[in-house]
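== Sequence entry ==
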Amino acid sequence: MITLDINGKNYQVDVGPEVPLLWVIREHLKLTGTKFGCGIGACGSCTVHIDGKAARSCQTAAGSVAGKKITTIEGLAENHPVIRAWIKEQVPQCGYCQSGQIMQAAALLAENAQPSESAIVSAMDGNLCRCGTYPRIKLAIRTAAKEGKRS
């Protein structure tokens, strides 16, 4: 039995310690906002925060995060500046990658409130978008950074 702190709630799950966190989140806890994309940590669809840092949940063993704070897209505040900017800049098309993109962007802005263009590209480089909305993703991150600056 593993106890996980996800979105501020403790969950006890009966899985082996090597089971990917993604499967625990989606299959055991039914928090389906975190997406399965590639299974090898290359696309970013499964990005969550572990102790505030962006991480690929498909490559994270559930046993390795016991005692750490895990946040999924469901745990991000609805009025988070990144979510508001995503809506304002009309980023989504198919939407499949959006939860991973948003979680990666939120982690970036938590670490660097005013990132340069190159810092945005560097941080977001591992998150793939099938629809190619990269210009709108970068615009939304800049919008969220400006909004955060005014707060």
